[in-house]
Design a protein that fits this description.
single chain; 450 residues; alpha+beta; Phosphorylase Kinase, domain 1; Transferase(Phosphotransferase), domain 1; six-stranded antiparallel beta sheet; two-stranded antiparallel sheet; 13 helices
Amino acid sequence: MEERLGRYQLIRRLGDNDLCDTFAAIQHGDGGFLRDVLVKRLKDGLASDSVSLRAFQGEALLLSRLRQRSIPHVYELSRDEDTGTWFIALEFIPGPTLKWVMEMERERQTPLPMGLALTVISQLCAAAHHVHESTNVHGQPNHMVHRNLAPENVVLGRDGLARIMDFGCALPRAELDATGSDGRGTAGYMAPEQVLGHDAPDRRADVFVLGVLLYEMATGTRLYDGRGERLRRALMDADAPPASSARPGFPPMLEEILMGVLARDPDTRPASADVLQRQLEGFAAGQRIQLGTARVAAYLADAFPPGRERAMSSDASAPFALPSTRTSAPPPLSRGSSSAPREHSTDLDGLPPAPSPSPRPKHWTGEGSLALASQEALRELEAEVAARARQSSRPAQGLQDSDSEAEDTLVGQSQAPAATERRPSLSPERPSVGVYIHVGGSPDDVNKKG
């Protein structure tokens, strides 16, 4: 692929949705400047549709007002001079989507480590609260609602930070009040008021979905696995089942927090994502569970060792995550010798062991599925990038922003020496080679745009 949009050379198509196509790309500049970026390109024909164009531009305009470490930087909103095509250039985050990680662990019939789940949700709470508290150019509150915190829109970066990568459904509360709920979002990751359409959602709808993510990460099971009328009935007929019914021995204090977050009535949920974050961090401190970017980074390094995944890096030889060319599940994980920190909690230590993983993984068939890229694809990409580097006046270098707010944060009594537990690593017979960022549609999407 040699297509260009302005200063950006499109390298690999990563996904699409109703509104745009998404690409891994290189930004070219003077003096041999090269940077790996993510480019979203408005679909052909939609520039003449004022509603679609406004939604596409609105994502970039919102991102330009946000400054938070779990939200990607936006570099540019432009129209290509040659083709007239609108596009957005964003920070590229190497790492798996949360959906990919959750499906991988579900395939193994294991929940994510509790400390990892709490860390990711705590980070997402901080990002969501920043969105909710954002202001316009005049300093007036937007009262923004994200409305689509689905796991495919969250990327777990190698630096240990979870990031929200899609803001196409985000709208100010005033606009939602005027138009009502339009049902946009991802099935299974929408609050009851979004699905039922009785009231315009506010920030508490996003809080509900954060609860859904925590439930699924901590129990290893889907909460609302359906769509259409089946999903409506599940949200109307009963409250969410207790987490302990999906994972016996689930900590009662955390279950109480979780059930409050998943209440059907928004008035009984935590009033903000910030309140939820403080509740979860208070629970972690009481149980002496260490939270922080180091936990997420260690998990990713253990499951996807850097030595076997050069395509996750931002160096000159392999600056891009490779798009999936297969729809099969990743290779089975073996119990490796590496380890990650373990949370210290009598409640959590008492949980029964997870069932043994099935010997033969099922195949994933959804459009949004991810798989590991092949060795041949990696060699092809490395050769392609190396050839471009030779043509430049200086060797290509993967450039990163200086905004490195990814320092580790520990909650609880971190002075105590951490015990260890054996975490899965990829089988040495099946080395992993690139993966990762996926910003595209999935069969679960419901009128999703942006």
